[in-house]
Every structure is written in C-alpha cells, then in structure tokens.
Design brief:
By secondary structure, the chain is an alpha+beta fold. Helices cover 57% and strands 19% of the residues. It has a three-stranded mixed beta sheet. The radius of gyration is 25 Å and the shape is elongated. 17% of the residues are buried. InterPro entries: BON_dom, Lipoprotein_DolP, Transpt-assoc_nodulatn_dom_bac. This is BON domain-containing protein.
Length: 115
C-alpha cells in the first residue's frame, strides 16, 4: 500500500509540474503576441522590422554611405538614424535613402558628422 501511495504522489507531482510548465509557456506566448514595443501590434512590429532591413540593405548597397557606422531603428514607419557619418553629404544621402524606402513615413536623422 505504501508503494502505491508513493507512486501516486510522484505521478501527481509530475502532472502538476507539466501543467505548470505548459501554463507558463502559454502565458509567455500570449503576452508576447498581445503588445510589442509601446503598444505596437505584432503586424506593425513586423512592418517596422521590414522597413529597417530595407533601409540597412540600401545603405549597404550605396557606396556613399556606411551601413556599419549608421544604426537604423523604425517605429510606426518613422526611421531613426543614429551613429556617425564621415561628411555632411553622407548624412544627407542617408536621409534621402531612408526617405525613399517603401512605407517610410518620415526620417529622424541623428547622425553625427565625424570626419
């Protein structure tokens, strides 16, 4: 009888542990899908990520700009450029490249010119 009771306790403990793990994973997934980055929906976040990738690719593709020295972040279609430019021309070209990228609403250029 003692062995049966011990076996039952272990079975219940394993089941409770599994349920707790499943509940924790479910909560993490649901909370992650609900809101992302300051009340941004998942779709908006994905759109912004696509814009960021496109701007970075265009900066890397252009010989007049340094994609390594320029950081790009996007929030609600607004592209934020930060980092360093070698000249005022590079800074302006980075703004132009970002502004001409599909779905960009506006550009905030915070690049510092550092020859």
């Amino acid at each position: 009888m003692h062995q049966l009771l011990t076996s039952w306790r272990i079975s219940v403990s394993v089941r409770q542990l599994a349920m707790a793990g499943l509940l924790g994973a479910s909560l993490a997934m649901v909370s992650g899908c609900a809101v992302v980055r300051d009340q941004q929906s998942v779709g908006e976040y994905i759109d912004d990520a696509g814009i960021t990738i496109a701007v970075k690719a265009r900066l890397a593709d252009n010989p007049a700009t340094s994609a390594i020295a320029i950081s790009v972040e996007t929030f609600n279609g607004v592209v934020h450029l930060s980092g360093f430019a070698k000249s005022e021309q590079e800074k302006q070209r980075a703004t132009q490249i970002a502004a001409e990228t599909l779905n960009v609403r506006s550009v905030q250029n915070n690049l510092v010119v550092k020859p």
